[in-house]
Amino acid sequence: MANNLPDDIVETLVAYLDGELNQEALAQTNQLLKEQPALQERLNTLKVAKAAIKSAGNRTQIENIHAQFLHNRKLKAQQVPVRKMFSFKPLLRVAAVVIFVLVGASVYEYRTTSNESIFAANYTEYSIPVLRGNEQQSLMEKAFQAKEYNSVINIFDAIAVKSQKDYFLVGLALLQKGDAVSAIKYFMEIKKLNGISEEKPYDYETDFYLAMAFLKTGDVDKFQEGLNQILSNPSHPYYQKAKDIKRWQLSILKWKN
Amino acid sequence: MGKEPVFSDKEVLTAIKSRQNMDAVLRFMYKDYFGLLEYYVKQNGGNEEDAADMVQETFIAFVDIVQQDKFRGDSSIKSFLYSIIRNIWFTELRKRGSSDRRNSQFEKQKDVVADPVAKQLVEHENKQLIFQVFNRLGIKCKELLLLVYYEDYSMKEILDQIPGYENEQVLRNKKYKCMKQLLQMIDTDENLRINIKNALQNGQ
After folding, report:
1. Which of B180, B188, B201 should we substitute to test contact with A (largest number of A Cβ atoms within 10 Å)?
2. Other beta carbons less than 10 A from residue B56's beta carbon
3. Interface test with chain A among B127, B186, B188, B204, by most A beta carbons within 10 Å
4. How many CB atoms are closer than 10 A to CB A201?
């Protein structure tokens, strides 16, 4: 039995395998191996053991790489696949542009909107209607048609009993001259007169031009009040003109005032 | 991170034989062949854990065979690895005594395709068993034997690596002692001893 071999013979066999024997010891061992099959069996087992140790080094190296590989694979598998989320970026860009444009426009509007700008955009010079069979005009009317506003005012002052028409024309003349405060005073007279008479001449026209006169003076609340009154009556002759005045422009005016 | 290097079959074999750049080559092989080999085991009744174990043994066997210059290069590395895993998995199933129909079918196929790789793997299997015994040695013995037989270090180089040995002869004596201990452990493992004997008688 191999186990019965003395320990020192195993040492000799290891030295034999590793090439550590001198010539004499090598020759003796070769002789022993020929004579003793059990010794040859020992040597063969040692050879396998030596090869196994060599392989053990490879095994350790491969086990490390194997562990790394499986670890990395597990990590990859655990990673929640990042689904391409719906991106708000393009929308945000568009929104930013829109906001920029809106803000820019708003800033522009804010800077350019004023009593005067709204007045200029919406004021229409009054034209005295010429009725068939009633072609003969008064001096005041003629002066107004001729845009001789000072004459209109002078003629008005000379009239002893003033009608709604007289107040209206002088109010317009004053408004044309830029005296909105006086114009308001005369337009208000028309309202007073109409308040106590059955007939209400120049009432609709006064609604509009009174409102415009308030706008001219910067009284936005009164201006808006006048517009609202016109807008409350869709059959009002100045309804469309009142509607054309933009509400947000009024808001700007209020912020600025 | 840099791009993983790619190796041709020839480069793989050269690296394994010379044991130069082994880590990079093994990582490349894992990347390229693991999936294929794993799939084979899974397709033939193995679970994920079986597959991983079998692939590892396949690579270890492959490296051993190449380093012993027993891979003739008649086939590609891929085909050779495939042959190895077929044999290793077959042996594993046989050990487990699996008798389900699927495995029986697999064994029949295996008999038909029995190839020279099977012989080489008997030696690998014995090495695997000896490795288990080797692992039971003390740390100093394992370290020393690996430096001698795996790293091929000279006694002088090992003296520089491991402190505590007076001279080369003391170190050599320690090596003998460790080998004797390993031999005794193999002797006490009846199955292992018989396996090795049979393998040697069969020309290994």
Report:
1. B180
2. 22
3. B127
4. 15
Give residues with Cβ within 8 angstroms of B157, minimum separation 6.
Answer: B147
Give the highest mean pLDDT range of A110-114, B25-29, B97-101, B163-167.
Answer: B25-29
Q: Cα separation of B38 and A223, whole Å?
A: 87
Residue with tokens 């693991």: B34
Better-predicted residue by pLDDT, B174 or B189: B174
pLDDT grade, residue A6 (50/70/90)?
low
pLDDT beyond 80 at A101: yes
CB A228 within 8 A of CB A92: no
Burial bucket for residue A178 (CB in 10 Å: 0-12, 13-18, 19+):
exposed
Closest Cβ opposite residue B150 in set A42, A57, A62: A57
Least-confidence region, from A86-100, A165-179, B93-107, B151-165: B93-107
Confidence band of B63 (pLDDT split at 50, 70, 90): very high
Report how far apart, in Å, the C-alpha atoms of A84 and of each of A80, A81, A94 are.
12, 9, 20
What is the predicted pLDDT for the residue at A235? 79
Q: How far apart are CA B111 and CA B87, in angstroms?
A: 10
Minimum distance, in Å, between the CA of residue B89 and any CA atom of chain A: 18
Helices (H), B19-162: 22-43, 48-67, 77-96, 101-112, 117-134, 139-145, 155-161
Q: Is A204 helix (H, G, I), strand (E, B) or coil?
A: helix
Q: What is the pLDDT of residue B112?
A: 41
Give the span between the Cα atoms of A189 and A195, in whole angstroms. Answer: 10
Q: What is the rounded radius of gyration, in angstroms, for the C-alpha atoms of chain B?
A: 19
Residue type, B32: D
Give pLDDT, residue B198: 73
Cα–Cα dist B163/B144, whole Å: 11
Say what the alpha-carbon torsion angle B56, B131, A53, B23 is, to the nearest 10 degrees: 20
Write down the pLDDT at residue A121.
85
Dihedral sign of CA atoms A13, A18, A24, A26 in order = positive
| Length of chain B, in residues | 204
Q: What is the pLDDT of residue A1?
A: 38
